[in-house]
Amino acid sequence: MKKSLLISILLVFLVVVSDHGSAESSGTDSKGDISYFFGYSFGNMLKQGGNEDVDMERLMEGVEDSLGNEAPNLTEEQQQSIIARIQANQQQRQADAEAAQNQVASENQAAGQQFLAENAGKEGVKTTASGLQYLVIESGEGSRPTAESRVRVHYEGRLTNGEVFDSSYQRGEPAEFGLNQVIPGWTEGLQLVNKGSKVRLFIPSDLAYGPSGTRGIPPNSVLVFDVELLDIL
Fold it and tell me: For 4-34, how does the pLDDT look when each residue is reduced to its tens digit (9 = 90+)?
């Protein structure tokens, strides 16, 4: 069970205990609600573990026997066998998920390398020793940030297929952060331009989120950012 779910359950208990009297007087079905909450949460836990295909009758029989302090209707040997089977299923699901991610990572790496090779020959695109590519769209007149600078920027991040995964423009306000707090491609890229510049960064996966990826960004993805360096703070 996830930590957040455990915390939610504890909070529900605290509310029920502290507000027991008012719940009774208002007619709120606290017992029914918390029972439903436990049932729903347990159902989510079963799904997350890949065990959603259950016999509801036997499931309820197990709950009733447990709450009624009855001995389990399974031998010790049967219980150990079930535990082993569940663990084996979980290990197989994890192995399948890792294999699928590795396949995606391999395909993205090949596609990213091809994209960068073709992009390197386009007019105005420069490639650094690290493999970072950049195109200065508009040159500013201010100073350049250092790796330790804090900056204010407007930006839009896309995958190579054009899908936008992050945008300060869409949020309607610039972002501020330290250049030592972001991916290496950003840290290097913004040091190459002056305040007031607009630059397009083409960031190889090893200067971004690598084979693990992150939310909204598949593994080994090349990232494309349009960035306006508004200020150095």
Answer: 444 454 444 444 444 444 444 445 568 888 8
What's this model's pTM, rounded to 2 decimal places?
Answer: 0.69
Catalytic positions are 155, 165-166, 183, 209, 225
Strand positions, DSSP E, the chain: 126-127, 133-138, 150-159, 164-167, 175-178, 198-203, 223-232
Structure tokens at 141: 């007149």
Q: Read out DSSP for 139-202?
A: ---SPPP-TT-EEEEEEEEEETTS-EEEEHHHHTS-EEEETTSS-HHHHHHHTTS-TT-EEEEE
Asked whether 228 and 153 are in contact (CB, 8 A), the reply is yes
The predicted structure's pLDDT at residue 28: 55
Within its chain, how far is the Cα of 222 from the centroid? 17
pLDDT digits over 109-140, tens only? Answer: 999 999 999 999 999 999 999 999 999 999 99
Q: What is the DSSP letter of 122?
A: S
First to last CA, the chain: 43
Which residue ranges form the domains of the chain, and what is each CATH number? 3-73 (no CATH), 115-232 (3.10.50.40)
Phi/psi zone of residue 124: left (φ > 0), alpha (ψ -120 to 50 degrees), beta?
left
